[in-house]
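Tokens for chain A. Residues wanted.
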């Protein structure tokens, strides 16, 4: 299902997961983002680190730049060369990559993480957790439900503020919310 984007007259996916995958949903793009989060910012360094073809790297960086996920910042004038830096939009992808990494640690490496991410201030290994902001309780996937959303409002907050209830949409086979 798609919706018409009033700003561009283009059809946009009605699913936020699909819209996200349209921007970052291939192997090379995710690995480029991983490098950017690790501080690899120069084209040649990314190409060397990833072993990616120049044209493919240029294409993915161009797409990320066009989507506003990455910004090109010149660091040299003759010839012009750029650092690629994550924008606030790009930085918001951190939790997505952390979740993919945690899943890979558990299911692809039998829980033996090849890389451990820690809090820079105290050195404690990080955990990925979904918590309810109202009651500060952890929420398992089986306890998540979805509500129809609106592009200009947050239905969960509106409902909570009004004390209202609304029927949840559940997947017919497993009760999940996505």
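Reply:
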């Amino acid at each position: 299902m798609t919706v018409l984007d009033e700003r561009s007259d283009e059809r946009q996916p009605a699913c936020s997961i699909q819209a996200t995958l349209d921007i970052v949903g291939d192997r090379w793009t995710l690995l480029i983002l991983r490098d950017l989060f690790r501080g690899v910012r120069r084209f040649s360094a990314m190409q060397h680190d990833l072993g990616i073809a120049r044209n493919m790297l240029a294409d993915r960086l161009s797409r990320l730049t066009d989507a506003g996920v990455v910004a090109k910042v010149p660091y040299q004038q003759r010839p012009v060369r750029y650092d690629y830096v994550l924008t606030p939009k790009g930085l918001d992808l951190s939790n997505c990559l952390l979740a993919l990494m945690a899943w890979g640690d558990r299911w692809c490496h039998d829980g033996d993480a090849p890389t451990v991410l820690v809090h820079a201030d105290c050195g404690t290994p990080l955990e990925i957790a979904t918590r309810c902001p109202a009651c500060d309780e952890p929420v398992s996937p089986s306890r998540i439900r979805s509500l129809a959303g609106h592009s200009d409002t947050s239905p969960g907050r509106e409902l909570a503020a009004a004390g209202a209830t609304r029927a949840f949409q559940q997947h017919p086979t497993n009760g999940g919310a996505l």
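The radius of gyration is 20 Å. The chain has seven helices and four strands.
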